[in-house]
## 1
Amino acid sequence: MDRQTGLMQELTPKERRANRVVLACFGLAALAAVGFIVVYWAAGTDMAALGGTVGACFLLLAAGLGHWSHELMPEGPFEEEYPTLRSPATEEAETLATLDRGGIARRRALLGALGVVGAALGAGAVSTLRSLGPSPESLVHTPWRGGRLAVTPEGDVVRASDVPVNSVVSIFPQGFTTAPDAQALLIRLPPGLNRPLPGRASWAPDGFVCYSKVCSHAGCPVNLYNREKHQMQCPCHQSTFDVLRGAEVLFGPAGAPLVQLPLAITADGLIRSTGDFSGPPGPVFWHKYR
Amino acid sequence: MKPVRRLNAELDERLGTQSFLTSAFDHIFPDNWSFMLGEVAFYCFILLVVTGVYLTMFFDPSDTQVVYHGTYGPLRGQSMSMAYESTVRLSLDVKAGLLFRQVHHWAADLFLAAICLHLMRIFFSGAFRKPRDINWMVGVTLLLVSLFVGFTGYSLPDDLLSGLGLRIAYSIAESVPVIGGWLTSLFFGGQFPSDQLTHRLFIAHVLLGPGIIAALLAVHLSVLWRQKHTQFPGPGRSDKRLVGSQLWPTYAARSLSLLCAVAGTVALLGGLAQINPIWLYGPYTPESASAAAQPDWYILWLEGSLRLLPGLRVHLWGYEISEVFWAAVFIPLACFALMYAYPALERWWTGDRFSHNVLDRPRDRPGRTALGVAAVTAALVLTVAGAQDVLAEYLQVSQPPVTYALRGLVILLPALTGVTAWKICRDLRAPKPVEMGEEPQGKSAEAKPSPWRYLPDRARWEPGPEAEQPAARTGLRGWVAAAAGATGGLVVGLAAGRRRRPPPPDPDAGTVVDERVPEERSP
């Protein structure tokens, strides 16, 4: 206590004031921390109170420390020399001589052999990476086959009469609702609008067209459909595809159309495919068509 | 004092610490607000580790599918991965769990922001020049690793948004010519979405990434310690002599204060500002996607690059190069290669092979400043382009015109801002003749000619004959005033209606700073 009052008497009025400000900051910071404990134990679910108390504690602490350093600590300016980094030539020569102790640099054969071991060991280590995944498959084929029924993601068969004109349904091949590459968007166009690509005239019975939902750009699910303009759009990068004309790219960064699924309607009115997609779905990569 | 003396003696007996401690306590750091940006990043990293460790206590990095039976009604009965389920649980059912998660997320966003600002400060002030080019490369690597760690972090919860991000990342990796297929298969553990993915992201996010960052930070700070910090030009300062504050106690207290300020800021943000509410996004399923899907801000430039680049496919004898490769692999890699090479390129271009400890003012290097401004502008345009669908909706126009405009802007705007920056630098640098009969005004009336002269031919600062005078603190105050001016806009916005008095003129300061703040009154 005596020491404290002694210290206080040595201070100038300005320093005494700063001392009080810092003390007040630290006191309030401690209070805020206690507040955090109370909030946590009381309920612990009010994020604003939790973050507010702990945030206030830290900010008060910051203010106190900052004020302390600014008002009550030596400010300088102090000086010192930058180090001279480059060493004298003699030291450099000494280091190099030390490095070559035992004539290490001249043992070319030994060093070479060491390098070979290192390379072989490194190659061995790298080759164990092979266990991390299967060999990359070419994705030319999806589970869609001729005659396979279309089902919703929940696994229900799609009845043509249940799909109103201008509406869309996400479909999978029956039994493969977890195959991401097989997902497709079934669209029922108003009659007469579809302008099929050559050779695909029979792929769209009753105005039903179906395109892969895996975007040809970066693989996001293309699941936005504009029913006025009859366009599919990818929500990730806005590639827009013309549903009326073989899902050609109208806009956006995609470099190729979406692949189309040939459809037919069974005798009891269910949607089925008559084959696989018109090509491998999804983004292109190096050996995709190999 | 007694326990301190005792401890010091005990340690000294065993380790001989006294000479190291005295030299360490006397270590001098120059004072400048912009030197604190790297420290902000460092403290964000510390907070990320602390909050991250807490989160691992509750997070379950597993792709195993479970059905949700928790307290959040809208998700009940839905099938989801354990990663998503545990993130929802730690957010909504664990006391203070959401606070820790939001603080962690905010700290990550601030971490990358501080790194980018620090990088810009280093670039524009020429701090990357020899001998610090080695530390520049460590820093660029830190940025690269931090981007990856940030991405793996927000991909962990396996919500709809992060799943889309991973799907895109898979396509990007797959687009690499020749090795893309193997790269994705080995890294992702098979076709996307594989059941290995969250495990791998988790170990990359909590061990590999932070471990690499910690190791690189150790190198970064050791090199800084060895070479000592750069300083802006000013009286008493030279490439040989450093002027600033001592580590103990002034700088240590100031730095600790900064740590507390960063902690307080992210705690307030985490408590008051909701970020990444994954229970609203829902679990990831391959057939779902939502519009207005944006990554965290530091990935937006990559997203923008993906959105703006037209679909250029290259066909090579049956092999293919995707448009994604150019946008998301080639351009980013080229940018980072340029960043790594920049110190060497500038050394080659200017022929300046000297070591430098005194920083350049950006205006004194118009070419470099223009290049930096252009690069930052391009990055900003790409960042805006990463949310181009949101922008189009905000502007009430369709997306194509916005995209085409951004395509033009990403080329034109950097050229425009670069040339403007170059012109401003040249104008600021040119000597201003005082007209005859006009009294020099204000503080500059008594200013002596600077004892510093700039030697462009040798491209370095050299002290004049008067340089070894006792140092004044003019440079520091000038910069603090400039910083205050820069933040003035914000302050004016907040305190609209309240008139701000300009600070009283400082008779000691030799630098003239325009302190007029535009007055704004609420109607």
## 2
Amino acid sequence: MARRAITPTQSKPVPVPRAVLELGVAMAVADRWQLGIAERAHLIGVPQGTLYRWLNDGTPSALPAHVRERIGHVVAIDLAAQAFYGPGTAVAADAVRRQGTAPNDRDPALPLCLQSTFALTEVRRAFEHRAGGSVASTMLPSLLPTE
Amino acid sequence: MSAIAVVSQPGKPVVRLQSLGGDQLARMLANAYGPDPQSLIVALELAAAADPLLERSLLGLRTLRRGDLGQIAANDRPWILAPFGNTGSSRWSSGGRGCWYGAETLATAQCEVGFHLAARCLIEQLPVHTPFARMQIDAALTAWPLDDLRTCEAADLRLSPRTYIDSQPYGDRRARQDSAGIIWPSVRDAARGLCVVAFRPVALENVTVALHSQRAEWDGTQLTWSR
């Protein structure tokens, strides 16, 4: 009887859609910052109903550009806080919730993060300044052309 | 600015590493952005895409030519290349072209950087006790020939403490003529410590990163440095 060769096959993981990953990134930060649904919607710049729909009925194939930009700033603030206060620590998240953008600033940074994209950018600049740099240097190697 | 040591040879200044000691710093980023391994990459890409400074940096880096990178190890590239991505104007560049600036000693680097930070504090009217985190980068230049302005007269306008009107055209011209860089006495440091500018990354080697950080604090009238 002829033997049939059996080739082990590995099931290929289905790639997660980009928009799902991007929204997941924003929600991961929002979890650490202990935000409610209304604050999460403000953070990424969409109405609360839209965010609720995305989370429950499915994310669109691509997130709007302004949402992606806001998530980018949020991640940069989160990275800078982690770089300054320690990776993944609650202290870093607490700093965003309770501390200002400058040492003498009594107004915490978080409400600014929920306002205009300009305000979000200002918070990003302040946190990256405090951390001594931006994630840009981290990103450069993968963006540069190889000889 | 980075702290480097300068070892002179007749006609060919050679700049070599000066070890500053201290603790090595490393930055480790945990993936705190989701269970998918791609999450961290997506997060970093989003952060970079929203960063106008990075966009400008990449524009600046595109002005570099093939071969300018030399033998720089991939891991060292961000630290060496970041200054070349800053295309703002400076003493030896009128803009559109990034440069790497270093100083002979840490004290000279602090005088140079402190001058510009203090100017910014005054212009932006920053509150007192504004801390600045500054990472220290240790670096070495190779034996590439540098324009030597150490013996220039004090009246040489290229070394003016008040204007870059003569230094910028000179730097632009020498960079076009494939000069590796310039070495000159600091005009911000009373001890006249030496400063170095590199026009091309290939002139830099053996860069080690962030031996320790230096902090400057603005007290309303001047900057004070501490570790």
